Here is the input.
Amino acid sequence: MFGAPPQPSKAELERAEAQTASDIKWTFAGAVVLYFSPFVVDYARKLV
Here is the structure.
């Protein structure tokens, strides 16, 4: 009945891939920061 949605252009796909890669990198960096934050807080408490 209805046709498929239009295919994204090559430029749109490249932008989407770049955005996805950036999102994955920031998510990984956030996970690392959250993992190490309790250790940093404990270390800072021992210094004071």
In short: The chain has a mean pLDDT of 95.
